[in-house]
Amino acid sequence: MQSLYLSLFEECRREYERALAGGDEKAAAEFAEKCAGILRKIAEKTPSRAGLYLEKARKWEATARELREGAERSKAVPPGSAGGGLTGDEYTPLVEGLISHSAITWEDIGGLEEVKKLLARNVALAFAKKPEAVKPWRGILLFGPPGTGKTLLASAAAGSLNATFFNVKASDVLSKYYGESSKLISALYRVARERAPSMVFIDEIDALSPKRENVHEATRRTLATLLTELDGFKGKEERFVLTLASTNTPWDLDEAILSRFPLRVYVPLPDKEAVKAIVRIHTRGLDVSRLDLDAIAEESVKRFYSGREIASLCQAAIHHMLEEMNPELGELDALSRIGELELKVRPLEMRDFEEAFRRIKSPLTRKDIERYEKWAEEFGG
Ligand SMILES: Nc1ncnc2c1ncn2[C@@H]1O[C@H](COP(=O)(O)OP(=O)(O)OP(=O)(O)O)[C@@H](O)[C@H]1O
Ligand SMILES: [Mg+2]
Questions:
Q1: What structural domains and CATH numbers belong to the chain?
Q2: Residue 136 in contact with residue 151, Cβ under 8 Å?
Q3: What's the gap in Å between 239 CA and the centre of ligand 1?
Q4: What lines the ligand 1 site, CB under 6 Å?
Q5: What's the gap in Å between 294 CA and the centre of ligand 1?
Q6: What is the dihedral of CA 325, 328, 329, 334, to 10 degrees?
Q7: Residue 79: what pLDDT?
Q8: Which residues of the chain register pLDDT less than 50?
Q9: How many CB atoms lie within 10 A of CB 204?
Q10: Which residue from 152, 170, 207, 345 has the fewest beta carbons nearer than 10 Å?
Q11: What's this model's pTM, rounded to 2 decimal places?
């Protein structure tokens, strides 16, 4: 039974890592707390090694706390910005905070086989030793509907490399370092060049676009800085920095941005085969032999589910199974006996998924998809 808890823990830790790699500190904090809870249960079940597990649990609790505080703190204005602003060098520690280590691998991404290959090839080309005439793309744009795996792809690309990976969410940079965000971007590229080979991932780059309404001076400045950095320093021999950017509103990007991202990769909704692969990934460790994966895939495609909805669908189905197998979990006094409870599992059944389908709704419509396809046709490539 302990192994079930361990696999639950693994699953939870993965979610934590995914959330963290995706820059979602709040979700990461929640998963970190869940990890701690599971470890405490394991500690109760295995008195001989309780100390070890409790120690681990405390570390996870501390991580959760730090993530929450970090999320709070970063809402505040950075120190020194009230006066004449920070000088370039003072940004280095801030930039170093953007360096992340990705635990995501290509195997964690279902479907998207062509996209994965294209990305792997171009990233490899960017960092390989090559004759001078070979000029790799400096900028690659991933675009597509929300939840289709764009952030995952960037994380996997980074994880597959030995390069320093800077993970930047454009909207965060703008809100956290308001007025200073342009300096932060220059510092970012300066540090990235120092640490080359480097990869910079700019998530939700549309937040910087001047096509949006009410664009502020600071935003424009930041965009201008970014565009210059993307151009690189002409003439000077330079250490290579690859920039990957992602958006789910590519039509918001203006020409200046687009021209810096000559390689534009469409990350579409999953087709039937991809749905099956994603379901397998998100039900790892459970028996799925009784599922009609074709039927699940067909229904998911019909409903315009993205990978994110399929992940939620699997979670909902798993919960349905767990609730049915462990009715005592709902009893109020169960919490006081939590150390004695043993989670029971059974193979997943279609009725778990039927229930889950009732709960998961896709935010997308056919019209939305057509808009992406049209944009891909016109500007993709
Ligand atoms: N192809 C996939 N394989 C496995 N899981 C996926 C896939 N696509 C999405 N997911 C699941 O959905 C979650 C969200 O994916 P991700 O953050 O990469 O989407 P995104 O395209 O960056 O979305 P957004 O445009 O909203 O930023 C992932 O953490 C993962 O759980
Ligand atoms: Mg994303």
A1: 1-75 (1.20.58), 85-268 (3.40.50.300), 270-363 (1.10.8.60)
A2: no
A3: 31
A4: 18, 22, 109-112, 146-152, 246, 248, 278, 281, 307-308, 311
A5: 21
A6: -150
A7: 44
A8: 77-85, 235
A9: 20
A10: 345
A11: 0.75
